[in-house]
């Protein structure tokens, strides 16, 4: 699958953080504002303990109520400034984070649109959905909440340590005894937590894949009474997700309690040392009170960093999975790719070989020559390679060897978008969007008027059933058009291609899902559409390709027979067996 092995440690956390920073720094002025507000908030809040010690030693000890009132008012102002600054910096941070996440989502979705079909063949759709949603949400959460908290905590630690040195150097140095222990614990846990979260994200992607597959294939599940099997498969993957998630969360959860334990040990040392200094007259009560308050405030940001740690590791794991997709090679044109304004329609396949997987050939030495305006029929048993030829014509895949020429030009030398705009493709399994009937047909040409859409539907013999729908052309289709029959979905797909007015047509079992009466009308519409256009028709119903200029019989990835319908029947070869088996209703011969 090209994915990182389950349990493999992530390779470049620093590089991932740098890439996230590049998204954040696009809003440089807002970030500067966040930093300034964090400084103001932190300094204002940390002035409180200093003022408290001052009040104890200078005003309370001397019974100076006026001075005490003034310093109390100053403390209130400091805490008020701290609160307002905290709210403003959170407001700015959320805006910065959400814009950054919007950019990440846009870049990820855009990259997915540019990737070749081979990539989607090799990746679970549920896992890709998980990267677009869950992984990006993890990044969003840490950018929206964690960045400001992390900045505030780090700055608090720095300012608190400075204030502790100013208050009492001896106690400050004593309080640093536990720092190496904190550093060591953090490093030990850091080595294991991130890849545990990576493992969790991959298990979640697998679970999403099971869900997406089961919901999409719900009719098949019910038809074969496989609900228990689906539940069992889901349960196994869900149990695995629970196991890996528990391991990740438990390991990350050690950070908070360990930091608290170390902090309490340090506090005990500070209190004992402070008492000893006070007894010897080396420190005042106010100094010790201020220092203890600062030490507690040092523990708070350390605990916050520890609590953020699991979220940061989860976000890093998610970001790495997102950036993996962004680093995939997109489907790009050659640097000197030529534009294609109009296709005359001469198509040549010159000794084409192709395989989806290395070492498993699908097409072998396939050659054909379609003259402009000709109808070329591709027939043969399932898996022979007929649809693969359509995939190569549209450049969904490129040939391994040989060449495909359009009007004498290798299609690899043409811009892919231009080439595909000149091709009209009707697949055996067509996709409809959750939108109106009108917009689904208009997908073939977005600037088409309503009248042109209706004309295309009429030509495709779809107008009569569309007008019987609850809201006619404005009827909303459900996902994948599941509120229509298979035949109706096929008719809408054909109307979409008619509207696009292509120069070359590729019909892959275009009439396989309609009844005989509808097929007759549809064939008449398709014959009108194909007039003057080069057309490739893939068909199992051989009665539909009697008028083809060329019939190519494909078997085992090779063209074994070619000619017109009549000449191939007279040869009494493979095509003759296929045709007579359909006409007489007999089972296909063993050779098929």
Oligomer: single chain
> C-alpha Rg, in Å?
35 Å
Q: Assess the beta-strand content as a share of residues.
A: 5-15%
Tell me the CATH architecture of the largest domain. Answer: Up-down Bundle
Name the helix and strand elements from N-terminus to C-terminus, one letter apiece. Answer: HHHHHHHHHHHEEEHEEHEHHHHEHEEEHH
- Helix/strand structural class: alpha/beta
**H/I helix tally:** 20
Shape call? elongated
Main sheet specs: 6 strands, mixed
Low-confidence parts: 1-10, 586-592
What does it look like?
With 592 residues, this protein is α/β, with parallel strands linked by helices. The protein has two domains: 13-326, ABC transporter transmembrane region fold (Up-down Bundle); 345-422 and 541-586, Rossmann fold. It has helices at residues 13-24, 28-60, 65-114, 117-121, 125-167, 169-175, 179-216, 218-223, 227-253, 255-279, 285-326, 386-393, 416-421, 437-442, 450-459, 463-466, 486-500, 516-530, 565-571, 574-584, and strands at residues 347-354, 363-370, 375-379, 401-406, 409-410, 423-426, 504-508, 534-538, 550-555, 558-563. Strand 9 (550-555) and strand 10 form a beta hairpin.
């Amino acid at each position: 699958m090209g994915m990182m092995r389950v349990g493999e440690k992530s390779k470049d956390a620093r590089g991932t953080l740098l890439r996230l920073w590049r998204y954040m720094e696009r809003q440089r002025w807002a970030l500067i504002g966040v930093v300034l507000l964090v400084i103001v908030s932190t300094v204002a809040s940390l002035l409180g303990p200093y003022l408290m010690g001052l009040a104890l030693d200078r005003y309370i000890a001397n019974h100076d109520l006026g001075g005490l009132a003034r310093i109390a008012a100053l403390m209130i102002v400091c805490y008020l400034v701290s609160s307002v600054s905290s709210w403003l910096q959170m407001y700015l941070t959320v805006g910065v984070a959400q814009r950054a996440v919007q950019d990440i989502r846009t870049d990820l979705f855009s990259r997915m649109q540019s990737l070749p079909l081979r990539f989607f063949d090799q990746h679970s759709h549920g896992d890709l959905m998980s990267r677009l949603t869950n992984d990006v949400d993890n990044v969003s959460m840490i950018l929206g909440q964690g960045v400001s908290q992390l900045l505030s905590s780090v700055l608090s630690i720095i300012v608190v340590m400075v204030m502790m040195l100013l208050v009492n150097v001896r106690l400050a140095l004593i309080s640093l005894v536990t720092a190496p222990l904190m550093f060591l614990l953090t490093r030990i846990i850091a080595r294991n937590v991130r890849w545990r979260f990576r493992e969790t994200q991959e298990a979640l992607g697998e679970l999403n894949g099971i869900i997406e597959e089961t919901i999409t294939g719900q009719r098949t599940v019910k038809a074969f009474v496989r609900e228990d099997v689906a539940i069992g498969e889901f349960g196994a993957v869900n149990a695995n997700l629970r196991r890996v998630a528990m391991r990740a969360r438990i390991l990350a959860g050690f950070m908070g309690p360990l930091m608290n334990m170390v902090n309490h040990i340090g506090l005990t040392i500070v209190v004992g040392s402070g008492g000893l200094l006070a007894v010897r007259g080396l420190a005042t009560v106010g100094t010790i009170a201020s220092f203890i308050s600062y030490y507690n405030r040092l523990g708070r940001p350390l605990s916050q960093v520890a609590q953020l740690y699991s979220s940061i590791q989860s976000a890093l794991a998610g970001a790495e999975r997102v950036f993996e997709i962004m680093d995939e090679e997109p489907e790009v044109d050659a640097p000197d790719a030529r534009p294609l304004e109009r296709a005359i329609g001469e198509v040549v396949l010159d000794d084409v070989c192709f395989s989806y997987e290395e070492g498993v050939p699908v097409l072998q030495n396939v050659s054909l020559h379609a003259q402009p305006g000709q109808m070329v029929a591709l027939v043969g048993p399932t898996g022979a390679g007929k649809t693969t030829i359509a995939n190569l014509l549209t450049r969904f895949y490129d040939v391994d060897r040989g060449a495909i020429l359009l009007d004498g030009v290798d299609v690899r030398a043409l811009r892919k978008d231009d080439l595909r705009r000149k091709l009209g493709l009707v697949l055996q399994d067509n996709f409809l969007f959750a939108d109106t009937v009108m917009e689904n047909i208009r997908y073939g040409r977005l600037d088409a008027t309503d009248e042109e859409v209706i004309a295309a539907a009429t030509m495709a013999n779809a107008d009569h059933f569309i007008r019987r729908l609850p809201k006619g052309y404005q009827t909303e289709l459900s996902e994948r058009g599941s509120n229509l029959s298979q035949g109706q979905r096929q008719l809408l797909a054909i109307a979409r291609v008619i509207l696009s007015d292509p120069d070359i047509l590729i019909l892959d079992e275009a009439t396989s899902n309609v009844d005989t009466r509808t097929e007759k009308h549809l064939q008449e519409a398709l014959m009108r559409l194909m007039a003057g256009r080069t057309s490739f028709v893939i068909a199992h119903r051989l009665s539909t390709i009697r008028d083809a200029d060329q019939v190519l019989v494909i078997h085992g990835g090779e063209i074994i027979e070619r000619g017109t319908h009549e000449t191939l029947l007279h040869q009494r070869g493979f095509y003759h067996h296929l045709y007579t088996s359909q006409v007489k209703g007999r089972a296909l011969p063993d050779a098929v």
